Amino acid sequence: MATINPFPIRIGIIGESAPGKEVEVRILIGHPMETGFRIGINGMDKIPKNIIEKMVVKINQDILFMADVGTGIAANPLLQFFVTIPATGGVISVEWFDDQGVSRKAEKELISPRS
């Protein structure tokens, strides 16, 4: 039986995917981002803290940016930025690490194959 990833990452490339062209990148990260301050359904116990601490975005293994993240980020964060596609094309990847020791990584080709 297949398991469902409880923390999916979706990467979208918007624009003309060609070398030298600027495209918009949207990364949606599925994560609860619990601060540890909310009270649970029983009205007494706090929901345990569970936040992303670090995100790394790369193009072809070169770091585009790293972010130290904390409780100021909403659940299921959306990153949106623009990049110029390298002449060689390649892959954009995002990886995150949370305070529970969980990490996830996803990647996507910057230049889509022609159909």
Can you tell me about this structure?
By secondary structure, this protein is an all-beta fold. It has a single domain, classed as Immunoglobulin-like. 0% of the residues lie in helices and 44% in strands. The strands form two sheets. The chain has a four-stranded antiparallel sheet with strand order 4-3-6-7, with no helix packed on it. The protein has a three-stranded antiparallel sheet with strand order 1-2-5, with no helix packed on it. A hairpin with a 2-residue loop joins strand 3 and strand 4. The two termini are 32 Å apart.
Backbone shape: elongated
How many domains? The number is 1
Weakly predicted, low-confidence segments: none
Strand content: 35-45%
Secondary structural class: mainly beta
Spatial arrangement of strands, main beta sheet:
4-3-6-7
**Spatial gap, N to C terminus:** 32 Å
CATH architecture: Sandwich
Computed over alpha carbons, the radius of gyration is 17 Å
CATH class: Mainly Beta
**SSE series:** EEEEEEE
CATH topology label: Immunoglobulin-like
The helical percent reads under 10%
Major sheet details: 4 strands, antiparallel
At the fourth CATH level, what is the homologous superfamily? Immunoglobulins
Mean pLDDT: 92
